[in-house]
Fold Enhancer of translation termination 1.
Amino acid sequence: MAIEKKRPRGLKSSAKANKKAKVEEASTEIPENAQTIVIEKEVEEGDELGEVAALLESAIEKLEENPVEALALLRGTIHESDQILRKWESEESLPAFFYYNYGVALYELGRLMEDEEFEPYLDAAEERLEDGLKQLKEDDKELYSKTHLALCKVWFAKAASQVSEDDTVSDLAIRALAAADKIVDELPSKVVIELADVVQNHGALYSSLESRNKFITWAKETLEKTLKEEPKNAQALYVLGLCKLQVAHYYLDNLNEEEEEEEEEEKTKLSEEEEKAYEAIIESKKNLEAARKAFLEQDKLMPQVLADLAEVHLNEANLVLGEEKQNKVYEQAINAIKEAQKLIDEKKLDYELPEGLVAFLAEYEEEQ
């Protein structure tokens, strides 16, 4: 079938707005199964600091698949932490790991609270994490790295609100990137990938290639280093694919008006900007398809990966010359969308596909 060419720029689903699923209102109390969770994690009776750590660990585990339950657990973590802080009477300060858990819970809760300002949560998280650094023992390198990782996330989140029209990179963003660079070699690969994802997402906020590349290049090089050691690391492949998709977004967003008008006509050649976008899209597709395969082998495939892959297919289709080839790529996008929907239904996931993908599927099916 012939489909009108539409560049789905609003689909940047994956990398930005839809990164977190829609969270419904949840109780401010600790969920009924919180004590069970603590017991399962073998916390000694009366160990309040251990219980807080267990609550946070459980919340982090549920962030992707069950954000509603994670929200309740995070609130429980903060409630218990606040109570401990208020009641603490010892002359000795609370340990550094307590402030780390408290700060991380505040940051993650702020990310999930879509109807509230993020900044107050970030300020509170930064304060607690800084408190933790003051109590940190010199030989505790693991907690040192974890605390600075959490601070990097807080600083990047704060720096996001400082991105201006002139695309100047703020001092805070530079500080965050420097901190990331300082600790990255000390982190396990899973955390390195998480950090690279934070950095590439920040880079996507800039319009200029110079500002964007400062962050995306760092993320790409970091991920490529990880993949040399673990070539089938699904998450590393996935985030690397997103990095390359951000490069494509830059070139697609900067096509001039004449190139836009040519979309109505049959094109025989891509412009220089379109060639660069197409090259980045093909590289992104290669990584995302490899990530999909690796996630499937682990039975850990999530609809977000398929949504990103569908976006890549759609952008590729809009640059392919020739209607027959274009429609084959559109079909690949449709297959990815349907696979994502099936996954959501089978696993009863609290995830909504981006509106642009849903609308495209509906239009496609209407024309069948």
The chain is about 70% helix and 0% strand. Residues 272-297 form the longest helix (26 residues).
